[in-house]
Structures are given as structure tokens and as C-alpha cells.
Amino acid sequence: MTLDHRLIDLLVCPVCKGPLTMHRDDASRPTELVCPADRLAFPIRDGIPVMLEGEARSLDGPPAAQTPVAQTPATQKSGAAPPT
Questions:
Q1: Which end of the chain is more exposed for a tag (fewer CB within 10 A), N or C?
Q2: What residues does 21 pair with on adjacent strands?
Q3: Closest Cα to residue 37, out of 9, 55, 54, 60?
């Protein structure tokens, strides 16, 4: 299924309402619509753009590793581990 280029001209980023650019794979098939302002890439699945913020891929790289849990003031003073 091909994506109608007239549709691309009408679509905007759901986050900032800015313009989108289409990225293609090696076989020139559309793979995602990219918002350069928000640095988000919205996937195109079976020829249908998925314009949901939760489905978008960040262009800033892989998600950051989970940060360690901050110590509470009580554990900072005593140096003891928090209760389990």
C-alpha cells in the first residue's frame, strides 16, 4: 500500500502542529514521518501514519537508563539502607 502524497501535505505534528518530513527505507518505502522541531519520528505501518505521541520514536537516541532511587534524608544521615 502506498501513502498518498497529498495526505502528507495535510498532516502536521500532533505535538507542535509543525511540518513533517517523510523518511524512507533502502527500497524507497515510507517508514516514518519526522518532526524536526520536536525530534520525534512517527511510524508508518501498512501505509498508515500512526500520529500518536506515545507511538513516536525520539530522535535524540535511546531512552536514558533508569536513574537510581534518591536516598531519603533519614538514610543519608545514618548511612543505613532503606527498609525493604
A1: C
A2: 34
A3: 60
Domains of the chain: 5-60 (2.20.25.10)
- From the list 29, 30, 32, 55, the residue with the least C-alpha distance to 43 is 32
Tell whether pTM > 0.85: no
Measured CA distances, 32 to 5, 16, 37, 52, 75 (Å) = 13, 17, 15, 12, 47
pLDDT of 10-67, one tens digit each? 899 999 999 999 999 999 888 999 999 999 999 999 888 999 999 999 998 765 444 4
8 A C-beta contact, residue 26 and residue 38: no
